[in-house]
């Protein structure tokens, strides 16, 4: 369930006029948030399930508003996509994440992958994508340890240009993950159309793995398919030991979720890396 409480005032959908007012307010809110540096990143560790080896981190955008408190990206990203502010936010995310990556490398954690979310909005926008790419090029990091997570959407009109853009990322060594796999309608279509390396199983899939083992036929077959087609698979939202064991049994190598670790602040992340090293 979504968070109740303070944010309700901002996000509750009433009539259209009220909605437009709220959207206008949100534009200012987000703008202010950027200027006042209310946005920051947390990182959720990703592990090899069989031996709990730390393999990567997903950068997740956070917004701590001075009055409203914590606002989830699940709430503000769709709005930022509508207002066009997503472009600026994603440039901010990329910069911050790459700075972290450089820090990890400097400290000797050269094998840790960094996963960054990229919205279809940015991916399909000419100017904004090239600005995003320029930032990517301006950091000297090991690109082979960078993963870009994209999600399925219906609104990719220019398929060829997206293929070219993703292929150019891959030429640098970057890997492409198809995020939230299983929630869209075009999953298989995406896998064949775009140069995808990694399938990221959505949490709703993982939720279906219960103690009783019901409702797992679908996920079993998805994992088998991914294995046979030689995609790498990572599961998100692992919360129970049963889910983890099930995933291991069906060749899902990697995973993230509260069972393993919640998203961490930069500070906590550094402590984790230090402990990994000893
Ligand atoms: P996502 O990419 O599917 O990210 C995974 C979400 O699941 C994150 O929520 C994470 O905190 C949460 N999560 C991880 N493990 C567990 C678990 O075991 N149990 C539960 N209940 N939740 C878990 P978060 O951070 O609220 O992000 C929500 C969505 O916002 C993300 O979903 C992603 O689509 C979007 N998002 C976050 N950061 C960015 C960003 O920098 N750019 C873009 N475009 N989207 C972002
Ligand atoms: Ca993601
Ligand atoms: Ca995901
Ligand atoms: Ca998801």
TrEMBL record:
Superkingdom of the source species: Bacteria
Cleaved signal peptide residues: none
Residue ranges of domain EAL in the record: 23-277
Annotated protein name in UniProt: EAL domain-containing protein
Organism of derivation: Herbinix luporum
């Amino acid at each position: 369930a979504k968070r109740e409480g303070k944010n309700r005032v901002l996000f509750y959908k009433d009539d259209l006029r009220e909605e437009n007012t709220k959207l206008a307010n949100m534009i200012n809110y987000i703008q202010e948030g950027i200027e006042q540096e209310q946005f920051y990143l947390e990182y959720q560790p990703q592990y090899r399930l069989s031996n709990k080896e730390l393999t990567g981190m997903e950068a997740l955008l956070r917004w701590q508003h001075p009055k409203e408190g914590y606002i989830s990206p699940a709430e503000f990203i769709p709005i930022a996509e509508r207002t066009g502010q997503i472009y600026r936010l994603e440039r901010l995310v990329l910069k911050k994440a790459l700075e972290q990556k450089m820090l990890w490398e400097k400290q000797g954690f050269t094998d840790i992958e960094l996963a960054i979310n990229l919205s279809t909005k940015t991916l399909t926008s000419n100017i904004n994508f090239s600005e995003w790419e320029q930032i990517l090029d301006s950091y000297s990091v090991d690109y082979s340890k960078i993963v870009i997570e994209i999600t399925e959407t219906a609104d990719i009109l220019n398929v060829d240009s997206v293929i070219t853009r993703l292929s150019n990322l891959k030429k640098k060594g970057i890997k492409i993950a198809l995020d939230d796999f299983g929630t869209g309608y075009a999953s298989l279509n995406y896998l064949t159309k775009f140069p995808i390396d990694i399938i990221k199983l959505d949490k709703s899939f993982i939720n279906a793995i219960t103690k009783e083992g019901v409702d797992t036929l679908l996920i079993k077959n998805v994992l088998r398919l991914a294995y046979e087609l030689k995609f790498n698979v990572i599961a998100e939202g692992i919360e129970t030991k049963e889910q983890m064991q099930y995933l291991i049994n069906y060749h899902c190598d990697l995973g993230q979720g509260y069972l393993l670790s919640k998203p961490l602040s930069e500070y906590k992340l550094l402590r984790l890396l230090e402990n990994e090293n000893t």
